[in-house]
């Protein structure tokens, strides 16, 4: 099999840096997703509590509908964050090691 070799030190240095950056990004991506999901849980929970308290006040029908719409959006976002967290955990369990070659 014919193999091209490049003896240019600058090219080799750039290739090594790219390979290192790729491995670093590959390793950090799942933890970034998990960290972001965890960081979103608290503010979403706080928003949910605030809208629940707001819903208990004397509001007219239009205002109550707006509060229900906000609650629905918070629930959808919380559901999405939960899915991201689950996906992150599954990727850690099933992803092959990050060894892709850069040429």
Briefly say what this structure is.
With 103 residues, this protein is mainly alpha-helical.
Report what the structure shows:
This protein is mostly helical and 103 residues long. It has helices spanning 9-55, 61-94. The chain is built from two helices and no strands. Helix 1 runs antiparallel to helix 2 (61-94). It is elongated, with a radius of gyration of 24 Å. The mean pLDDT is 78.
Characterize the main sheet: none
Number of strands: 0
Low-confidence segments? none
Overall, the morphology is elongated
Work out the strand percent.
under 5%
- Class by helix and strand content? mainly alpha
Distance from first to last alpha carbon: 16 Å
Report the C-alpha radius of gyration, rounded: 24 Å
Q: What is the N-to-C order of secondary-structure elements (H for helix, E for strand)?
A: HH
Q: What is the share of helical residues? A: over 70%
SS element count, helices: 2
The residue-averaged pLDDT reads 78
How is the secondary structure organized here?
Elements: H1 9-55, H2 61-94
């Amino acid at each position: 099999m014919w193999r091209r070799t490049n003896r240019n030190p600058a090219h080799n240095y750039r290739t090594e840096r790219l390979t290192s950056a790729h491995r670093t990004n590959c390793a950090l991506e799942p933890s970034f997703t998990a960290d972001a999901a965890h960081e979103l849980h608290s503010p979403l929970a706080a928003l949910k509590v605030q809208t629940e308290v707001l819903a208990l006040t004397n509001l007219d029908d239009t205002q109550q509908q707006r509060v229900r719409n906000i609650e629905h959006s918070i629930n959808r976002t919380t559901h999405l964050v939960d899915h991201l967290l689950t996906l992150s955990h599954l990727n850690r369990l099933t992803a092959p090691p990050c060894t892709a070659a850069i040429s």
